[in-house]
Write a structure and sequence with these properties.
By secondary structure, the protein is an alpha+beta fold. The protein has three domains: 46 residues, no CATH class; 76 residues, no CATH class; 53 residues, no CATH class. Helices cover 35% and strands 21% of the residues. The chain has seven helices and eleven strands. Helix 2 crosses helix 3 and helix 4 crosses helix 6. The termini are far apart.
Length: 191
């Protein structure tokens, strides 16, 4: 059985007290009608979930946010990834699962540099991360006469075909992250 939900209705806002915390909802807020209905029906647990959706989701994903620092299953996240999650949390955006999926994949990389700097690259370049945690990146390539086959612009020898993974031996990868255009693949492409 839920507790009695205390609330006050004002001309432009609704204030409710849920689990000892006061929430004020503007009448223009898309959740206003739902919050009012839940308050009228003393649905404290449902109100808590609605008003703390990011906290509930964070809790379910194993994320803890303390003093602006994000930990995931006890691990500190890289600074930029931390900032991205905090920003989403502050804006009450709830779909942080792509960032968690990205981190789970990234931490499998044995190199130090990607773990600490790839999220900086993503943040600085507004790279999209899909639901699976994969990065959506674009590469400038040159056309060939073959359908759906392209070549790199540097040497015109490295093939890129739709649906075919691009790879090369790791010792041939240019690991200088300052080289944005290089032979074959560069470090950013190898993350």
């Amino acid at each position: 059985m839920s507790n009695i939900v205390n609330y006050l209705i004002f001309p432009t806002t609704l204030s409710v007290i849920v689990k000892g915390k006061t929430y004020t909802i503007n009448r223009e807020d898309a959740k206003y009608a739902q919050v009012l209905e839940l308050a009228l029906n003393n649905e404290e647990e449902e109100l808590y979930k609605l008003l703390n959706v990011t906290s509930v989701i964070a809790e379910n994903l194993g994320i803890e946010i303390t003093n602006g620092l994000v930990t995931y299953n006890g691990e500190n996240l890289p600074k930029a990834l931390n900032r991205m999650i905090i920003t989403m949390y502050e804006q009450r955006l709830t779909n942080i699962q792509p960032l968690i999926n990205f981190w789970n994949k990234l931490k499998l990389n044995p190199s130090y540099r990607p773990l600490n700097f790839l999220s900086e690259f993503i943040e600085a370049n507004n790279v999209v991360i899909n639901e699976n945690g994969n990065l959506i990146l674009y590469k400038i390539v040159g056309r060939t006469k073959e359908k759906d086959v392209f070549l790199d612009l540097y040497t015109h020898t490295f093939k890129h075909e739709f649906g075919v993974p691009v790879s090369m031996p790791r010792n041939k990868v240019d690991d200088n992250i300052d080289n944005t255009c290089s032979e074959g693949l560069n470090m950013m492409a190898s993350y």
